[in-house]
Specification:
Blueprint lengths: L2 H13 L7 H14 L4 H4 E2 L2 H12 L4 E3 L2 H6 L12 H10 L3 H13 L4 E4 L3 H10 L5 E4 L7 H11 L3 E4 L6 H16 L10 H11 L3
Parallel strand pairs: 2-3, 3-4, 4-5
Antiparallel strand pairs: 1-5
Helix pairs in contact: 2-10, 4-10, 6-7, 7-8, 8-9
Length: 214
């Protein structure tokens, strides 16, 4: 970490002792608090250690990652992430089906990935609601949408569904905290021997060609 991040984590740890939490719950909680500077997430987040361990295993096994919004996708820099929100077909589906663009993006992404994907929802609650209503059979869902209209209800529904997930109780959330939770799990997945998480050698080569570094 750079000196600013190191100092930020030092201050966080001096104000709140997260050491009693099990590893994955602690990692997610610390990252989310660090990203938001909001200590309320200590009690607001709903983490299940067994589910988080399954999330790490799914990422390490190479589960495709799907982001519900452009801001979430932009924040996921350590792994390929599929996001359909800006595509013209999403706009057309939204109009013809009479659904929101986040819901249309989820439908199209599910059509491409199928079951077993790792979903990161940190935008509109419509995206998370569509994940649940479409029966996407996810490997894991990070459900941290933000908003006064429907966000808390969508997260309640996620927890009631029995799907392996991490969420929070309040209306708070958003792309930054969803990405922080994902990065905490990705970091552990990358440490698994033989991990297929993140950008592999072929992906890295393609990215280097795209940005002109080779």
């Amino acid at each position: 970490m750079n000196p600013v991040s190191e100092e930020s984590y030092r201050i966080l740890r001096s104000r709140l002792d997260l050491s009693p939490l099990p590893k994955f719950s602690r990692d997610v909680t610390e990252r989310v608090i660090h990203a938001s500077a909001d200590f309320d997430y200590f009690t607001d987040l709903v983490c299940d250690e067994e589910s988080l361990a399954e999330a790490v295993a799914a990422l390490a096994a190479g589960a495709p990652v799907v982001a519900d919004s452009a801001m979430v996708a932009a924040g996921i820099t350590g792994s390929p992430a599929l996001c359909k929100i800006t595509e013209p077909l999403t706009h057309r589906l939204s109009r013809t089906a009479g659904i929101s663009r986040p819901a249309a993006a989820v439908r199209l992404a599910f059509g491409e990935t199928g079951p077993g994907a790792f979903w990161v929802a940190g935008g509109s609650p419509d995206g998370l609601a569509e994940i649940l209503s479409r029966g996407v059979e996810p490997a894991f869902v990070i459900g941290l949408p933000v908003g006064f209209a429907g966000a808390a209800e969508a997260k309640d529904a996620l927890r009631a569904s029995g799907i392996r997930s991490v969420s929070n109780v309040s209306e708070k959330g958003g792309p930054a905290v969803a990405v922080a939770a994902f990065n905490a799990l990705l970091s552990s997945a990358l440490a698994v021997p033989g991990s297929r998480a993140g950008w592999g050698p072929e992906d890295q080569a393609a990215r280097s060609e795209d940005d002109g570094t080779v």
